[in-house]
Amino acid sequence: xxxxxxMAAVDEDARIKRIASTIRVIPNFPKPGIMFQDITxxxxxxxxxxxxxxxxxxxxxxxxxxxxxxxxxxxxxxxxPIALAIGAKFVPLRKPKKLPGEVISEEYTLEYGTDTMxxxxxxxxSNDRALxxxxxxxxxxxxCAAINLIERVGAEVVECGCVIELTDLKGREKLxxxxxxxxxxxx
Amino acid sequence: MSAWKNREHDPRxxxxxxSMRVISNFPKPGFKFKDITxxxxxxxxxxxxxxLFVExxxxxxxxxxxxxxxxxxxxxxPIALAIGAKFVPLRKPKKLPGFVISEKxxxxxxSDCLEMHIEAVQPGERxxxxxxxxxxxxxxCAAINLLGMCFRxxxFQQTMHVNMLPHVENKDVIIxxxxxxxxxxxxxxxx
Lengths: 187, 191
What we know:
heterodimer, A: 187 residues, alpha/beta, five-stranded parallel beta sheet, two-stranded antiparallel sheet, 9 strands, B: 191 residues, two-stranded antiparallel ribbon, 5 helices, 27% helix, disordered C terminus, PRTase_dom (chain B), Adenine_PRTase (chain B), PRTase-like (chain B)
């Protein structure tokens, strides 16, 4: 009989292997040379999807998280189940002009040009402890914009959580000292 | 907003209805936009919303929950996870990376398009379509038609009754369909 902590590690490893195996890579999308990490096939496997959410929930349930912020659009798929399970608010971070109320905006750099991310005024309070959730971290630009929006209202970003990290693009470094937790590392 | 009068009064509905807000003149002058983001800020109301759907659909052999981008991505996945179904995102054009089928639908001004990955659903599956709101029904009809392209006869016994004109197997054909609201499961109806 293996010690409980070893059994837990073995189980975690099995779940991560399953999750990783359900993600498919689509070459040359959205542009030539890019290997796109497609999580839609993960969502077609109810066990893998359940395991993905469970691994985040297990990590965060005792960390007094009051807000889960999800980045449009794939962060909307993973964020809400986590928020529901840990009893936190869910806050959508959206492209411009989608949110109907008063917003604060953060501009961020893309490979070519810039984009803007918005959050409703009043959604996050200064005493909130927040998670930022997205399906993937690449360069880290999007996550940094999300972190900035939350910190601008005085709240604390406890951690960023992503299903996939593209390690070559060094997004982790761009986040600086903000913790990042990922399930699967890809190149 | 008023609760759905024909349904048995569920005490959770008042809390859900009151947690939403109406924003005037968004996205255009004269519109009254029903904003669900304030519901999402109320963990109890959000949980009750999901629970109402899960209670209705659990154990009904539903293997697919299809959610319409983007607010359908918020409500669909928790329902899918709870009932053990696949989640299939229905997206605006050029977002899905694999092979897709697409469906055009009519807006007040112009048209838009919804896409689904071609291998996401199989013939014989029982599907649920989830979105935050139904207005004219154009988006939901497009979603239903996308799912219907994958198999010849669809029966949405639990969710909606659809009256469709015969159509050609051409993905760019605009298909008109009417939703009969009395067969839709709506948490509540707004006046």
